[in-house]
Amino acid sequence: MLFISIMIIIYRRNKMKKILLVLSSFLLISFNTYADDMRIALVVKGLGIGFFEAAAEGGEEAAKEIGGIEVIYTGPATTTAEAQIEVINSLIAQKVDAIAISANDRDALVPIGKKAMQRGITVISWDSGIGEDGRVMNLDPSNTALIGSSNIKWMKNSMGDEGEFAILSATSQATNQNAWIEEMKKEFAKPEYSKMKWVDTVYGDDLFDKSYQEALGLFKKHPNLKGIIAPTSVGIVAAAKAVEDQGLVGKVFVTGLGLPSEMKAHVKSGAAIQFGIWNPIDLGYSAVYLSHQIASGAFKGQEGECIPTGRMGEICIGAGNSAAMADPFIFDASNIDKFAEIF
Amino acid sequence: MMKNLIPDNPPFKLINILYKKEFILFMVFLSIIIINSNISPYFLDLYNLIDSTFLFSEKAIIALSMTFVIIARQIDLSVASIIAVSSCVLGYTTSVGFDTYLVISFTLLSGILCGAFNGLIITRFAIPSIIVTIGTMSLFRGLAYSFLEDQYYNKFPKFVVSLGSDYLFGYIPYAFLTFIIMSLIFAFILHRTIIGKRIYSIGNNPDSAQYTGIDVDRYTFILFTLNGLFSAVAAIFLSGRLSSVRPNIAFGWELEIITMVVLGGVYIYGGSGSILGVVISIFILGMLSFGLGLLNVPGVGIIIFTGLLLILSIGFPSFVKYFRSKNE
Question: In the Cβ-directed half-sphere of A233, how many Cα atoms lie within 13 Å?
Answer without folding.
Answer: 21
